Amino acid sequence: MFQKLKQKWNVGWLQFTLIFITFALGGSLCGYLGRKILGLFEIEPAGVRIPLYIIIVTLLWPFCVLLISLPLGQFGFFRKYIGKMWRRVMGRRD
Protein backbone atom coordinates (compact mmCIF):
# COMPACT_ATOMS: atom_id res chain seq x y z
CA MET A 1 0.00 0.00 0.00
CA PHE A 2 2.71 2.52 0.96
CA GLN A 3 4.77 1.62 -2.06
CA LYS A 4 1.84 2.36 -4.39
CA LEU A 5 1.27 5.78 -2.81
CA LYS A 6 4.99 6.55 -2.95
CA GLN A 7 4.99 5.74 -6.66
CA LYS A 8 1.74 7.62 -7.33
CA TRP A 9 3.09 10.75 -5.65
CA ASN A 10 6.54 10.20 -7.17
CA VAL A 11 8.39 10.84 -3.89
CA GLY A 12 11.20 9.22 -1.92
CA TRP A 13 10.82 7.62 1.50
CA LEU A 14 11.85 10.72 3.45
CA GLN A 15 9.36 12.96 1.67
CA PHE A 16 6.71 10.23 1.93
CA THR A 17 7.27 10.08 5.70
CA LEU A 18 7.05 13.87 5.99
CA ILE A 19 3.82 13.85 3.96
CA PHE A 20 2.27 11.27 6.30
CA ILE A 21 3.38 13.25 9.35
CA THR A 22 1.81 16.36 7.81
CA PHE A 23 -1.48 14.53 7.20
CA ALA A 24 -1.49 13.28 10.81
CA LEU A 25 -0.61 16.59 12.46
CA GLY A 26 -2.86 18.61 10.15
CA GLY A 27 -5.82 16.33 10.83
CA SER A 28 -5.23 16.44 14.58
CA LEU A 29 -4.96 20.24 14.55
CA CYS A 30 -8.12 20.42 12.50
CA GLY A 31 -10.07 18.24 14.96
CA TYR A 32 -8.76 20.25 17.92
CA LEU A 33 -9.71 23.59 16.34
CA GLY A 34 -13.10 22.21 15.29
CA ARG A 35 -13.89 21.28 18.90
CA LYS A 36 -12.71 24.69 20.14
CA ILE A 37 -14.86 26.52 17.58
CA LEU A 38 -17.92 24.47 18.48
CA GLY A 39 -17.26 25.19 22.15
CA LEU A 40 -17.67 28.89 21.47
CA PHE A 41 -21.27 28.38 20.36
CA GLU A 42 -22.44 26.03 23.14
CA ILE A 43 -24.65 23.94 20.85
CA GLU A 44 -26.20 21.06 22.81
CA PRO A 45 -28.32 18.82 20.55
CA ALA A 46 -26.07 16.17 18.99
CA GLY A 47 -28.27 16.24 15.88
CA VAL A 48 -27.02 19.75 15.20
CA ARG A 49 -23.57 19.57 16.81
CA ILE A 50 -22.24 16.57 14.85
CA PRO A 51 -23.14 17.80 11.33
CA LEU A 52 -21.84 21.27 12.20
CA TYR A 53 -18.56 19.75 13.45
CA ILE A 54 -18.19 17.79 10.19
CA ILE A 55 -18.73 20.96 8.15
CA ILE A 56 -16.26 22.97 10.25
CA VAL A 57 -13.59 20.26 10.05
CA THR A 58 -14.08 19.90 6.29
CA LEU A 59 -13.59 23.63 5.80
CA LEU A 60 -10.62 23.87 8.19
CA TRP A 61 -8.67 20.84 6.95
CA PRO A 62 -6.95 22.41 3.92
CA PHE A 63 -5.78 25.39 5.98
CA CYS A 64 -4.49 23.20 8.81
CA VAL A 65 -2.60 20.90 6.46
CA LEU A 66 -1.05 23.84 4.60
CA LEU A 67 -0.04 25.44 7.90
CA ILE A 68 1.62 22.23 9.14
CA SER A 69 3.27 21.63 5.76
CA LEU A 70 5.28 24.86 5.99
CA PRO A 71 7.72 23.85 8.76
CA LEU A 72 7.97 20.30 7.38
CA GLY A 73 8.92 21.56 3.91
CA GLN A 74 5.96 19.97 2.15
CA PHE A 75 4.02 23.11 1.19
CA GLY A 76 4.53 22.60 -2.57
CA PHE A 77 3.20 19.04 -2.43
CA PHE A 78 0.12 20.00 -0.42
CA ARG A 79 -0.60 23.11 -2.49
CA LYS A 80 -0.80 20.87 -5.58
CA TYR A 81 -2.70 18.14 -3.68
CA ILE A 82 -5.36 20.52 -2.37
CA GLY A 83 -5.62 22.26 -5.75
CA LYS A 84 -6.24 18.90 -7.40
CA MET A 85 -8.91 18.05 -4.80
CA TRP A 86 -10.58 21.44 -5.31
CA ARG A 87 -10.70 20.97 -9.09
CA ARG A 88 -12.34 17.57 -8.62
CA VAL A 89 -14.92 19.01 -6.22
CA MET A 90 -15.70 21.69 -8.79
CA GLY A 91 -16.23 19.03 -11.45
CA ARG A 92 -13.04 19.41 -13.47
CA ARG A 93 -10.65 16.55 -14.10
CA ASP A 94 -6.86 16.75 -14.33
What is the count of helical runs?
4
How many individual β-strands? 0
What's the pLDDT, averaged over the residues? 92
Structural class: mainly alpha
Q: List the uncertain runs.
A: none
Helix content class: over 70%
Query: What sequence of helices (H) and strands (E) makes up the elements?
Result: HHHH
Outline, from the CA principal axes? elongated
Distance between the termini: 23 Å
- Please outline the major beta sheet: none
Query: How many whole angstroms does the radius of gyration measure?
Result: 16 Å
Count of domain modules: 1
Residue share in β-strands? under 5%
Summarize the structure.
The chain has 94 residues and is an all-alpha fold.
Can you give keywords for this protein?
mainly alpha; 94 residues
How would you describe the overall organization of this protein?
With 94 residues, the protein is mainly α. The protein has one domain. The chain is 84% helix and 0% strand. The protein contains 4 helices and no strands. Helix 2 packs antiparallel against helix 3 and helix 3 packs antiparallel against helix 4. The two termini are 23 Å apart. The model has no long low-confidence stretch (mean pLDDT 92).
Secondary-structure blueprint of this entry?
Blueprint: H1 2-9, H2 13-41, H3 46-72, H4 75-89
Helix pairs in contact: 2-3, 3-4
